[in-house]
Amino acid sequence: MKSFSYFAPTEIVFGCGRIQEIGKIAAGFGGRALLVTGHTSPEKIPLYDRVKDLLAGAGVTAAHFDGVIPNPTTEVVTVGAKVARTFRAGVVIGLGGGSSMDTAKAIAVEAAHPGTVWDYLHYTAGPTEKTLPVIAAGTTAGTGSQTTPCAVITKTESLDKSAVWHRNIFPRVAIVDPELTVSMPRDLTARTGFDAFCHSFEAFLSVNANPLTAALSLEAIRIIAVFLPRALENGGDIEARSRMAWADTLGGLVIASAGVTLPHGLGMQIGGHCPHISHGEALAVQYPEFTRYTWSSAKEQFAAVGRILNPALASADDGAAAEKCCDAIDGFLKRIGLWIDFKSLGVTKEEIRAIADCGQVLGDYKNNPRIASVDEMYGMLIRCYERTGTA
């Protein structure tokens, strides 16, 4: 068997209603917490107030930073870090989707170190153990941020989207309460759910995969294949929401060890150049070309996933099942409403060229079973400009 190491220090508190424990959990890190969320809006006030009450009930004084935006920026992190330092926060709580949890991790770094979070990106020595402890409580099911050592941040002036990747930013505790995801609208459910699929699929393909990540990846893919469509059909289906919350958590656990591959590196560049595009959309738009570029270099893995998505492939040999997996993933994208192209997303061909030119800035492409050149990346992306076929 392959030699490997696996490190996942986050305590996972999973189950419906477990948000009720957030006060007790936060109190274990001291009496002052910074709550990090997206903008306060009428529909979010009840949850935010509930969490504040739970913290207060446990003797924790909380400050609320509600400046998180999609594709969070260095500017946002700096504002939040100043709040954390002024308030003398002992713990940072990220409550929301991946952007809120990533921003919480980034604030925990910048508040405890000189400079800005951008000084601690994945290619540096990274943040030290002075990083403030983080509690992550997700309200979506897809980013896996509650169990990863990753915080994705955009530097606006250079259209650069990158990440801190370091074991010192693993959340100390992840509260995974499926009830918090029930209010997600259908489109957000689809986008985050497909992100969860991509995490597990790419970790399964990754050259850094190991027997443990492979087993967890396949389990997550099996769950998503069944329960993402169910969650889209009925957002109140608590079993579907619970299963997706678990698949999301598994996705985080596997990428924390095996990493992601080509689509995520390109997806980061898409988000950096075109911040109006969500991460799930940035992945979905390129997947039909990515799978066809990669399948022949990972036949066993593609075949396994193809047989999950299309049981009719059970008797096919690996080569046939692997190639047909591409069609099965197309069908899944159509089923969940993400059969999209760059043209419909408002991305120009000139922007596609710029995105491809930055395609090797992040190292994710090196994890792919087939390594793409910049020209090959451009070829894949430009073929996604206008997609044929019905949604």
Q: Describe it for me?
A:
It is a single chain. The protein is α/β, with parallel strands linked by helices and 391 residues long. The protein folds into 2 domains: 11-181, 3-Layer(aba) Sandwich (Rossmann fold), CATH 3.40.50; 186-382, Dehydroquinate synthase-like, alpha domain (Up-down Bundle). The strands form 2 sheets. The chain has a 6-stranded parallel β-sheet with strand order 1-8-5-4-2-3, with helices on both faces. A two-stranded antiparallel sheet has the order 6-7. Helix content is 47%, strand content 12%. The protein has 14 helices and 8 strands. The model has no long low-confidence stretch (mean pLDDT 97). It has helices at 22-27, 45-57, 74-87, 98-110, 186-205, 211-233, 238-258, 262-273, 279-284, 287-294, 299-309, 318-335, 349-357, 374-382; strands at 11-14, 32-38, 61-68, 91-96, 134-138, 150-155, 160-165, 173-176. 54% of the residues are buried. The chain is globular.
Head-to-tail CA distance between termini: 42 Å
- The total strand number stands at 8
| Sheet of most strands | 6 strands, parallel
- Provide the spatial order of strands within the biggest beta sheet: 1-8-5-4-2-3
Whole-number mean pLDDT: 97
Low-pLDDT runs: none
Helix content: 40-55%
Structural class: alpha/beta
